[in-house]
Design brief:
Keywords: Cell membrane, Membrane, Transmembrane, Transmembrane helix. Pfam families: LrgA (PF03788). This is Antiholin-like protein LrgA. It is found in: Cell membrane. This protein is mainly alpha-helical. The protein has 6 helices and no strands. Helix 1 crosses helix 3. It is flat, with a radius of gyration of 20 Å.
Amino acid sequence: MLKGIITLLIFQFLGGCIATLFSLLVPGPVIGMVLLLIFLMIRGSSFKSLDDVVSLHLRYLPLLFIPAAMGVITQVDIISKEFWAILISLVFGTIISLALSSKLMDYLITKKENKQK
């Protein structure tokens, strides 16, 4: 499954690089999907780990991406007015959640190690 995730990330990265390098209006992930399609057509088939990752993502795609994209599209004027507040809250929220998650993982790993002894 890790091989599949890495494959998707590589093609998304390549698409992003191409979109940035040539200043294209098409988003990088879309270009990456086209590159992945071309790769799979040349290869002739997919591989199991990629199939597993793709089926997992496709199962939850409507829940994760479509509502968020629609919210952004319909609220562009509000987002542009509150851009800095949104950006600052996203940055600090991410930092806080990463710090708390790392502390929780550290605690759980320590607890598991103590239990095994």
